[in-house]
């Protein structure tokens, strides 16, 4: 399509709206309500103003303006600048204005634009210090008086004094997660984003709203102060674990390109912060795979033997996905693998196996974890995840929180030497590492299940068909005849990320016309690498880079199958026995509960 | 003075005209019969196009054009909505149409549905009109009983269901896309146009939304022909207009007048002149969102034409005398728009609030130079950058106050260039 922007003629290929067209040709247009991952914005923030029809054309927003052939667009002149600036000023005076102590300071879209447009003075509002009478305070915006803080859940914190009502959180929750946790409440100046009837947030805590929020209105629940307190407790052994994807993303907080591998630096940073031991969640991911592949093999063998068995089996590593099934589709709870997630498996091993090995009691261990995920905070607090009243994981912080703490402690992250994981629970295979990407659990499980069931060495271990960023990937893998399999069988698998895609699969399953054997679901776009606790900004470009880095890292590793992980083998030999043993069942498996009653019937 | 022509108010004086018997005895539903017996939907449409009828909701969009857009859509199912959300301050004409002669409205609705091919229609009623709701309910029930609604209307192959939907009385829900959102259970907020509701509205189906006064014209147009209608009034704004006259006049009320009247004529002829002991200052045409008419423009004729100095809008005339406090008037306007802003876009949500606080300070005589600069900024922002027309309208009258120097503090001696 041919259009004219600022007097220059362009041929636009993909774009459908004027804003997208400008982005396509590299013209920057300020916006707060639009996000490239979401459907075109509805023109809420009024910052993406352009002129249509040349110099004397009309002023319009560009985000919701459909592209038409031979359009003439002006993206910058005095009037447009004026409109953008005035609207930004209006937002700015309404905003909390507490940048210095805000968690998004330096990474806030509103702040960046305010800087760019040189918004310093607080226009429109009389100077508070000049107020003589108390009544004059009523001139201050009413919404500041109606501040809403929602901190009733362990994962997500919402404070609407930072909110600019851009509605991205509403859109991401509706479009990507199909949950509609948020909506608009009230009207005119009292308009605010909120939950229905301002009840405490009751969702799956995936945290996508926090990563799409341009300001600090929705953030992860900040546990850094709690972490600091724990780290200064010299009477206890502080053991960290790091999720597979964190080592590919934390660097972004310190100026590295997305996907930069900073595993060694994180370990060193944690030791500087006061960690006694640093273990690897990718190790327990291998452990999860060994257990989960065994469970899958057992279910398949039972089916082949003609026993009634629940298939397909669902992965259970993603706590948001588990919550989604528990809250919305409890009829599918038997499909969930009973395996705990890697975080909880490692937590359990730290407080049992490792405590016994070191001959210390588990009360004197603090089990801490760094996760890409806000929902893990909830998972760690589930009552099934504690033993004798002690949680297996005492505290979870997200990638962003760890970066915040590293900055607060003035650790020079970029110049840290590379550290190494502690042994016993600290080495990983490539399979454990790719847990961080959507399709990774599936691929890792297939690598192990194939060898378990066929007793043959898997030659081509990359299952390309389950990789990528499309919503649902399906594959059929042929397992040849073996001592366990009387004839060759087809294993049909599906991988989904984002709840909207998972929902599709569940709807098909509900109808009964589906013969999957194994389904992997990750609630966040791209899997954990796009998790709700990951560095901001996260968009499709960033996710692709992170994903590529993860698969490249896997490729270069000598051990790429979970059951070949030496620490896993030793753990079974010395402690657990064999996969699916009584001890494994006790420590590594869990159960789920129907949480549908938490919700009112049919909304 | 133009010749006395009554289209809408013609039968208002007949006792019990809101009863179906009375309405039928006075030639009611004959236009509908004519439509169903003699005319194809396209013929009805072309008759309306010939009439040149403008929408009476304020914008004056050509009814024929809107219908045609909806008719062009290939979707089989279509909806028709009668907009009776009337909440523009100073307007009370639509409510009267419904209360005085409900069957005229219903007849118009059925004719419209036949023309565009809708089989389901709604009356979107301002939820505050409880009395009107009762009247319309009785009228609709009577129509179902008489076979004027439901299956095979009057024995012809045309079905129509008509339902009343009560909104909660938000001003913004009179805007057609917000109205459609409201009726489908969503938050009453305008949405991006295009697509217009007549292309993709309720349930994603083509939905025509017409103002009640517009619809009430239809039986007459069918009976007398579009040509005859087009000869009444002005060229680009044919027909008559219900004028809600109020303020400092001797006889306030609703008057039906052929378009082509000047504000002065209405004040003197219908209103009986300015209230004794007061002196005319200015008038406001079209409700709180309308423009101001100072004495020098009293002879201008408001119309729907784009070139018109005074847009007719909803057609109300509010007369202000020189004893009024302009600061209080401005405050009442902005209070209304601030309260009724849906909160969707930044300039309207935040801007009207800031504007209100400045005007409050003005009323308290506490305004300073900073405020004057901000005022100018806010008016420009609301005028140019809001999502829908509400934000733009909210400063229409205030702009005029400054333009005509009605408020000395704001005029500050110079011609402001808004």
For the biggest β-sheet of chain A, the strand order reads 2-1-5-3-4
- Shape designation of chain B: globular
Q: Which stretches of chain B of 5+ consecutive residues score pLDDT under 50?
A: 413-418
Helix content of chain B: 40-55%
| Lateral strand order in the biggest sheet of chain B | 6-5-9-7-8
Q: What's the short version?
A:
Chain A is of the alpha/beta class and 603 residues long. Helix content of chain A is 34%, strand content 14%.
Write structural notes for this entry.
The complex is a heterodimer of chains A (603) and B (418). Chain A has helices at residues 18-24, 78-94, 109-116, 142-145, 168-175, 208-212, 224-231, 246-249, 263-273, 281-304, 319-328, 342-358, 375-380, 399-408, 430-433, 440-454, 499-511, 540-555, 566-576, 582-588; strands at residues 2-5, 8-11, 49-52, 58-61, 72-74, 149-150, 156-159, 183-185, 192-194, 218-220, 237-242, 277-280, 313-314, 365-371, 386-387, 390-391, 395-398, 472-479, 489-497, 518-522. Chain A folds into 2 domains: 2-91, Ubiquitin-like (UB roll) (Roll), CATH 3.10.20.740; 222-603, Rossmann fold (3-Layer(aba) Sandwich). Chain A has 20 helices and 20 strands. Chain A is 34% helix and 14% strand. The mean pLDDT of chain A is 92. Chain B starts with 19 loop residues before the first helix and ends in a 7-residue tail after the last helix. In chain B, the strands form 2 sheets. In chain B, strands 6-5-9-7-8 form a 5-stranded mixed β-sheet, with helices on both faces. Chain B has a 4-stranded parallel β-sheet with strand order 3-2-1-4, with helices on both faces. Chain B has 3 domains: 20-230, Rossmann fold (3-Layer(aba) Sandwich), CATH 3.40.50.11540; 240-321, Ubiquitin-like (UB roll), CATH 3.10.20.600; 326-410, de novo design (two linked rop proteins), CATH 1.20.1440. Chain B is of the alpha/beta class and 418 residues long. Classes of the chains: A alpha/beta (603), B alpha/beta (418).
């Amino acid at each position: 399509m041919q259009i004219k922007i600022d007097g220059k003629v362009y041929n636009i290929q993909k774009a459908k709206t004027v804003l997208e067209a400008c982005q396509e040709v590299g013209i920057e247009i300020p916006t707060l309500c639009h996000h490239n991952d979401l459907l075109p914005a509805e023109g809420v923030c009024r910052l993406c103003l352009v002129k249509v029809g040349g110099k004397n054309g009309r002023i319009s927003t560009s985000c919701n303006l459909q592209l038409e052939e031979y359009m003439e667009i002006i993206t910058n002149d005095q009037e447009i600048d004026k409109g953008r600036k005035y609207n930004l000023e209006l937002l700015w005076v309404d905003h909390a204005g507490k940048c210095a102590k805000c968690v998004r300071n330096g990474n806030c879209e509103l702040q960046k634009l305010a800087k760019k447009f040189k918004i310093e003075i607080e226009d429109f509002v009389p100077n508070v210090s000049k107020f003589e009478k108390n009544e004059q305070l009523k001139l201050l915006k009413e919404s500041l008086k109606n501040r809403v803080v929602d901190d009733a859940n362990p994962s997500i914190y919402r404070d609407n004094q930072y909110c600019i009502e851009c509605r991205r959180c509403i859109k991401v929750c509706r479009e990507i997660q199909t949950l509609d946790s948020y909506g608009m409440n009230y009207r005119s100046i009292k308009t605010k984003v909120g939950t229905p009837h301002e009840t405490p947030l009751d969702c799956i805590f995936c945290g996508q709203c926090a990563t799409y929020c341009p300001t600090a209105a929705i953030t992860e629940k900040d546990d850094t102060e709690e972490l600091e307190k724990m780290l200064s407790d010299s009477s206890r052994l502080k053991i960290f674990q790091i999720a597979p994807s964190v080592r590919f993303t934390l660097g972004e907080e310190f100026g590295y390109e997305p996907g930069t591998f900073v595993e060694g630096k994180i370990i060193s940073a944690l030791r500087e912060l006061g960690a006694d031991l640093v273990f690897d969640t990718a190790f327990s991911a291998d452990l999860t795979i060994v257990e989960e592949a065994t469970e899958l093999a057992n279910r398949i063998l039972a089916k082949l033997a003609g026993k009634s068995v629940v298939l397909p089996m669902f992965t259970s590593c993603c706590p948001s996905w588990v919550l989604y099934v528990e809250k919305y589709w409890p009829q599918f709870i038997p499909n969930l693998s009973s395996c705990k997630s890697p975080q909880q498996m490692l937590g359990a091993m730290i407080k049992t196996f490792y405590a016994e090995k070191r001959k210390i009691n588990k009360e004197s261990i603090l089990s801490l974890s760094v996760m890409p995920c806000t929902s893990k905070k909830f998972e760690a607090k589930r009552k099934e995840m504690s033993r004798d009243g002690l949680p297996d994981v005492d505290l979870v912080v997200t990638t962003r929180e760890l970066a915040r703490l590293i900055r607060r402690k003035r650790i020079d992250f970029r110049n840290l030497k590379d550290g190494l994981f502690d042994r016993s629970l600290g080495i990983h295979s490539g399979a454990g590492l790719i847990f961080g990407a959507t399709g990774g659990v599936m691929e890792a499980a297939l690598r192990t299940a194939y060898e378990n069931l066929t007793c043959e060495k898997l030659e081509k271990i990359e299952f390309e068909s389950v990789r990528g960023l499309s919503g649902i990937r399906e594959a059929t893998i042929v397992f040849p005849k073996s001592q366990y399999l009387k004839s060759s069988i087809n294993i049909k698998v599906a991988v989904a990320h984002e709840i909207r895609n998972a929902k599709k699969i569940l709807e098909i399953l509900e109808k009964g016309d589906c013969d999957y054997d194994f389904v992997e679901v990750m609630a966040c776009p791209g899997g954990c690498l796009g998790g709700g606790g990951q560095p901001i900004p996260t968009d499709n470009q960033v996710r692709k880079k992170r994903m590529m880095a993860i698969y490249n890292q896997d490729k270069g590793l000598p051990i790429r199958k979970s059951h070949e992980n030496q620490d896993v083998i030793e753990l079974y030999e010395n402690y657990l026995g064999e996969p699916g043993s009584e001890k494994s069942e006790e420590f590594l498996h869990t159960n789920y509960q129907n949480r549908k009653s938490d919700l009112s019937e049919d909304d | 003075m133009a010749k006395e022509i009554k289209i809408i108010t013609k039968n208002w004086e007949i006792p019990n005209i809101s009863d179906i018997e009375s309405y039928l005895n006075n030639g009611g539903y004959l236009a509908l019969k004519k439509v169903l017996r003699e005319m194809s939907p396209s013929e009805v449409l072309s008759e309306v196009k010939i009439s040149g009828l403008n929408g009476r909701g304020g914008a004056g969009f050509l009814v024929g054009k809107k219908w045609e857009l909806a008719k062009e859509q290939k979707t089989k199912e279509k909806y028709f909505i009668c907009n009776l959300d009337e909440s523009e301050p100073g307007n009370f004409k639509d409510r009267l149409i419904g209360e005085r002669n409900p069957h005229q409205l219903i007849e118009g609705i059925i004719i419209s549905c036949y023309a565009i091919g809708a089989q389901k229609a709604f009356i979107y009623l301002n939820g505050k009109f409880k009395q009107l709701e009762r009247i319309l309910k009785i009228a609709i029930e009577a129509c179902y009983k008489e076979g004027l609604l439901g299956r095979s209307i009057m024995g012809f192959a045309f079905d129509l269901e008509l339902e009343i939907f009560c909104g909660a009385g938000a001003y913004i829900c009179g805007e057609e896309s917000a109205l459609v959102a409201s009726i489908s259970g969503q938050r009453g907020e305008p949405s991006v146009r295009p697509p217009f509701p007549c292309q993709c509205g309720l349930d994603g189906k083509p939905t025509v939304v017409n103002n009640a006064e517009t619809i009430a014209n239809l039986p007459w147009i069918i009976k007398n022909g579009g040509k005859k209608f087009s000869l009444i009034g002005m060229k680009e704004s044919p027909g008559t207009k219900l004028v809600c006259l109020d303020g400092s006049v001797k006889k306030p009320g609703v008057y039906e007048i052929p378009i082509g009247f000047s504000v002065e004529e209405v004040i003197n002829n219908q209103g009986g002149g300015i209230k004794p002991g007061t002196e005319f200052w200015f008038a406001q045409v079209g409700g709180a969102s309308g423009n101001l008419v100072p004495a020098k423009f009293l002879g201008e004729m408001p119309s729907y034409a784009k070139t018109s100095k005074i847009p007719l809008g909803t057609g109300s005339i509010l007369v202000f005398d020189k004893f009024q406090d302009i600061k209080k008037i401005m405050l009442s306007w902005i209070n209304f728009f601030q309260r009724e802003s849906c909160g969707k876009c930044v300039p309207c949500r935040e801007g009207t609030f800031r504007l209100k606080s400045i005007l409050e300070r003005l009323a308290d005589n506490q305004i300073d130079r900073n405020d004057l600069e901000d005022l100018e900024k806010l008016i420009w922002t609301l005028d140019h950058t809001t999502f829908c027309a509400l934000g733009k309208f909210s400063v229409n009258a205030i702009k005029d106050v400054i333009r005509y120097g009605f408020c000395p503090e704001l005029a500050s001696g110079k011609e402001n260039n808004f």
